[in-house]
Design goal:
Number of strands: 21
Largest sheet: 6 strands, mixed, barrel
Strand order of the largest sheet: 2-3-8-5-7-6
Number of helices: 27
Shape: elongated
Strand content: 15-25%
Distance between the termini: 41 Å
Helix content: 40-55%
């Protein structure tokens, strides 16, 4: 038995090699679908590996040292700094905060264009411990920031230089200090990529910071202490010693194991998303693979029938064409792997400038192997059905198949092999993902979507069978072609529809988000937020704004920063925190205290405290936090505030109206320990747009330490960020649409032989070229329109679920996006249908009829 099987396999390979000498005709769509999906998966995997390797290689530079210790509001004590020096070879201290930067020379009203909010970073002489700072013009960092000719130096972000028209030698006021611009700051080694910032960077010397007057009790200031540890130091043991020495310090400590957590999470999530998009394209392309194999085998019907008539067993037929398919699949997979491996070479330099670290360009065999395995499994899962069908039909049926298409079910062994291939494909997608539960959901959703579109295609076929016969012959023929044997209805609706569905959903989600950010900005939203108002400045600030024309509704609240360290006594690190509230536990959060319920919120669970409450510390939390964590009134949170852990009992939940853009916080405390802590004030004010520049200038002139955040600017940046994200997602989703388009082309090619036969018969019966063209174009137009309608319905439903259930927002149907999809689908199907029809009509009738 083994010898017979070996001989059969050798013969099959020899026959397959001979047939492949005829070229790749009929397999270009097959190759295109494979190359597209493999390129996406291999490219994303390689680029992800290159980025994560780059993060690992540049870990010290990205972190700024072996250990980064961050405090908020207050610097480390003398004792703590001495401990740092005693346990590290080198220590660097940096301070980060926000402030208003003004170019002198236009202090009058209306000169708001000459000032802007900036992210200020003050560094010492040891900075940077690792990596290099790149400036324009090139100069030593100490020289660029040093005090010379009576002025401290400053290096400014290129965005700020353009905004304020700054050049080397120009003056720049920040707080009470006038700096001299010494150049542009092109790169900081320890600054990770930030998707959203409130202002451009300005780098100054730490010695100049105190004179600015920006650092006040309660000001939002971040102090970083970067440590270069001795070479044999175990960072885990070091962190334990640090915690034992200062158990209640309240700082956040990072080491090389998590040097750039934001970038790492970003890379992992983008990798997961892009890999799944590539897999979606591969799955959609799988339909194209099946179509291509079926079309190729349709062209080989006489050859297969001849094989069977001369005694070739079904196994030999199957193995012969399986060998051909797998050989061509190897070619497509190899091409996709080459293109995917080259992606880091192209994208690496671009991303390195944006992400602020070097991409480790190279060949990553693991990522390529995974992509190749995806390709092999996809090919088997989708090619086995037409291959098994061809080897299972009797020779006589093969000869008649062109005129009497016979639907057949593959044998049980083939169905088992298809199921095994599909299961392995799903298992690989889950095992290869960092977030396996999400990947499992994707697999379930992909299977559900494919089944849904298959059922939709079946529904279209059934409706086409039952609609009344049209009077116009062309329309009657077009409708009949939707349900005739071998019609491409199923493959087109399933593949092209899936890609269009993704685009509809993305367009609707983007449109609704943009609408909420820009078009639905509340009419009573504040014009400005003002931060870092000191306690002794509060009354003069309110009085000044109250005396200005057009300024109204000035509101102030105390503001501090604190971090949740325990929930009901359990450390946060030991909790299983839902992803939608994880951000509340990541680092410090803004908090406040109040005697009365904030005006833009209402209590929905529990009771508010008495305005004169002076007992145990209480806290009111946002309803979303309480519901997600299951925290009921009477339970407790522990907050680290200025290095001190404060336990507070949960008094109630609040329903917060965040859309109003007023002042509110996730946590509001009762009067008590929190109200006695050093704090600054946050304020809002409303003014007409034409008075905004005057308001900003007056505040900056009288209170240099107060930073003004213009709400409209923030919304514009959010809108721009959403637009960029949507563009990237649309571009990514277009891979799926491109795969669907290839499948459409494959469906047209698969039915080409039957289309030629139909055209010849119609012409012999007296139909003109115009009659046949109109009938075929009506068929493809109906097919495109039906596909668009199905995609519009499914895509709108998906967008509604995301907006209302995931994002907890409002959904409005945007007809423009849906209509554009309908036009796009109809145009694409008509274009491919016309090409196929034109080719069919060029065939001469006599040769075909003589052959038949």
């Amino acid at each position: 038995m083994g010898t017979a099987m070996t001989d059969t396999l050798k013969l099959a390979i020899r026959l397959a090699r001979r047939e492949l000498r005829g070229g790749l005709r009929g397999f270009w769509i097959f190759l295109g679908c494979l190359v597209l999906g493999i390129t996406a998966i291999a490219g994303v995997g390689s680029l992800s590996s290159a980025m994560l390797t780059g993060i690992s290689d540049d870990g010290r530079a990205l972190l700024g040292g072996d250990i980064d210790i961050r405090r908020i509001h207050t610097p480390a004590t003398d004792e703590q700094r001495a401990w740092f020096r005693d346990n590290a070879e080198r220590v660097s201290r940096t301070v980060e905060l926000r402030g208003m930067a003004r170019r002198p020379g236009g202090n009058g009203a209306g000169d708001g264009a000459r000032q802007t909010l900036v992210e200020l970073k003050a560094v010492d002489r040891a900075y940077p411990l690792f990596g290099t700072t790149v400036t324009k013009p090139e100069q030593p960092l100490a020289q660029g920031l040093a005090r010379r000719d009576g002025a401290w130096g400053a290096l400014v972000d290129s965005t700020l230089a353009r905004r304020l028209d700054l050049a080397p030698g120009d003056r720049l006021n920040i707080g009470d200090v006038t700096y001299r611009v010494r150049g542009e700051l092109l790169r900081e080694p320890d600054r990770a990529a930030q998707a959203f910032t409130l202002g451009p960077r300005v780098l100054v010397a730490r010695g100049s910071l105190e004179a600015t007057g920006l650092v006040q009790p309660g000001s939002l200031v971040y102090y970083h202490y970067r440590l270069d540890l001795p070479g044999d130091t175990d960072t885990g043991a070091f962190r334990k010693r640090l915690e034992a020495a200062f158990p209640d310090a309240g700082w956040r400590v990072n080491d090389l194991s998590n040097a750039a957590p934001g970038i790492t999470r970003f890379v992992e999530r983008v990798t997961l998303f892009m890999t799944l998009v590539g897999l979606t394209a591969l799955l959609v392309g799988g339909v194209g693979i099946a179509n291509a194999v079926r079309a190729y085998l349709d062209g080989k019907i006489p050859t297969i029938a001849t094989f069977k008539c001369v005694g070739a067993p079904a196994r030999l037929v199957f193995l012969t064409y399986l060998a051909q398919v797998m050989a061509l699949a190897a070619l497509g997979i190899a091409a996709g792997l080459v293109l995917g491996a080259a992606l880091p070479l192209v994208a690496g330099p671009i991303l390195a400038g944006y992400l602020n670290f070097d991409i480790a360009v190279g060949v990553y065999p693991g990522a390529l192997a995974v992509a190749a395995l995806f390709g092999v499994l996809t090919t088997l899962a989708f090619a086995l059905w037409p291959l098994a069908r061809a080897q299972g039909i009797p020779a006589a049926a093969l000869f008649r198949d062109v005129v009497a298409h016979r639907a057949s079910r593959p044998p049980a062994w083939a169905l088992g092999a298809i199921a095994a291939s599909g299961g392995a494909l799903a298992g690989l997608a889950v095992v290869n993902a960092d977030q396996r539960l999400f990947a499992l959901g994707f697999v379930g959703g992909a299977v559900g979507a494919l089944l849904a579109f298959r059922l939709a295609a079946a529904g279209v076929v059934e409706v086409a069978k039952r609609v009344p016969r049209a009077r116009r012959p062309a329309l009657r023929l077009a409708v009949a072609n939707l349900h005739r044997p071998g019609a491409p209805t199923g493959s087109v609706v399933m593949s092209l529809g899936l890609g269009l569905t993704v685009l509809v959903a993305i367009a609707l989600i983007e449109g609704n988000l943009s609408r909420q950010v820009t078009e639905q900005m509340p009419e009573d939203a504040p014009s400005y937020f003002f931060i870092d108002i000191q306690k002794d400045q509060r009354d003069p600030f309110v009085q000044m704004l109250g005396g200005m024309d057009g300024v109204r509704d000035v509101s102030t609240v105390p503001m501090l920063r604190g971090r949740i360290t325990r929930v009901n006594g359990t450390p946060v690190g030991e909790l299983d925190i839902p992803e939608d509230v994880q951000w509340i536990f990541d680092g410090d959060r803004g908090i406040t205290w109040a005697r009365d319920v904030p005006s833009n919120s209402r209590v929905v669970n529990g009771q508010w405290w008495d305005p004169q409450h002076d007992g145990q510390q209480l806290v009111s939390i946002d309803r979303q936090l309480g519901a997600a964590m299951g925290l009921e009134p009477g339970e407790s949170l522990t907050i680290n505030l200025l290095g001190r852990n404060i336990r507070a009992e949960i008094a109630n939940w609040r329903e917060v109206n965040w859309e109003g853009l007023g002042i509110n916080f996730v946590m509001v405390f009762s009067p008590g320990v929190v109200s006695e802590a050093p704090q600054s004030y946050l304020a809002t004010a409303k003014t007409p747009p034409e008075r905004e520049a005057d308001l900003e200038s007056r505040v900056a002139e009288r209170f240099p330490n107060i930073s003004a955040i213009r709400v409209r600017d923030v919304l514009d940046r959010v809108s721009g960020l959403l637009a960029n994200i949507a563009m990237a997602v649309r571009a990514t989703a277009s891979i799926t649409l491109l795969a669907g388009t290839l499948v459409l082309a494959g469906a047209v090619a698969a039915g080409h032989r039957r289309r030629i036969y139909d055209a010849v018969v119609l012409k012999v019966l007296g139909a003109t070229r115009r009659n046949v063209t109109n009938a075929f174009l009506l068929e493809y137009g109906l097919l495109g329109l039906v596909t668009a309608l199905v995609a519009a319905v499914v895509g709108s439903a998906a967008a509604w679920v995301v907006m209302t259930k995931v994002m907890d927002g409002e959904f409005v149907l945007l007809p423009g996006a849906v209509a554009l999809t309908a036009v796009l689908a109809t145009a694409v199907t008509l274009a491919f249908g016309y090409v196929g029809t034109d080719r069919a009509l060029r065939q001469k009738a006599a040769p075909l009829l003589r052959n038949e």
